[in-house]
Amino acid sequence: MEEKVYGYWLPMNVSAHAEEIDQLINWLHVFMVLLFVGWGVFFIYCLFKYRAGANPNATHADVKAKSAKYVEIAVCVVEAILLIGVSMPVWSEFKSDFPDESDSVRVQVLAEQFAWNIQYPGKDGKFGRRASEYISTDNLLGLDPNDENGKDDFNSINQLHIPVNKPVIITLMSKDVIHSFKIPVMRLTQDIIPGQSIRIWMEAAKIGPGHFDIACAQLCGLGHYRMRGQLTIETADAYQKWLDEQESGEEDEFSF
Ligand SMILES: [Cu+2]
What we know:
The chain is built from 3 helices and 10 strands, in the order ααββββββββββα. The protein is of the alpha+beta class. The protein folds into 2 domains: 78 residues; 153 residues, Immunoglobulin-like (Sandwich). The strands form 2 sheets. The chain has a 5-stranded mixed sheet, with no helix packed on it. Strands 4-10-9-6-7 form a 5-stranded mixed sheet. A hairpin with a 2-residue loop joins strand 1 and strand 2. The structure holds copper (II) ion. Copper (II) ion binds next to loops.
């Protein structure tokens, strides 16, 4: 039977580094269930113990028992462990341990209402210079027509193709408002702030069935719901074939 992308629990994991994130999510759910059940039982206990029938007169004395305080302290300690012990190390490792650019695929993602412009650097491996004054319907990325590096760049709208088992460095930018780049099967979510270039990276560990969703996880306007891209993970050969097709077949992608 084919594994489903979305089941009753976390989406399929095709990422090489999502294990720790899944662990954190699972532990959070365990603690949430404990808290929910604990406080639920306490609530029902109070409903019986302090019912009006058995307690006709209200008590105005201070609370003497220390247990509530200890429970609160325990909750704080557990949350601090999750944040400092689990969450922060995973995050800082992800943010500081970037793979080598030379053996990574590099793409630039320019988000706009309501699409993902995914720019590949072309054969030369260099991205062309971009500036907002060049943006037009023929030049969605705003590539500088005089920059040689940009001549072979191509823009794949909403279609992100990546090879399996190779790190991918993505530079995220926005043309207009705050968007958020989310790939559930990669356990990857990063807000995109206008005026900033934010680098993230990921690596696919398996090809998986067909395509995966890229979603905008930040309400960015009326068309937010249709800001949906597609991630395709391929073997190195299939990826190269796709690149060649894009580079040759769509020569006039940018007609300045
Ligand atoms: Cu958006």
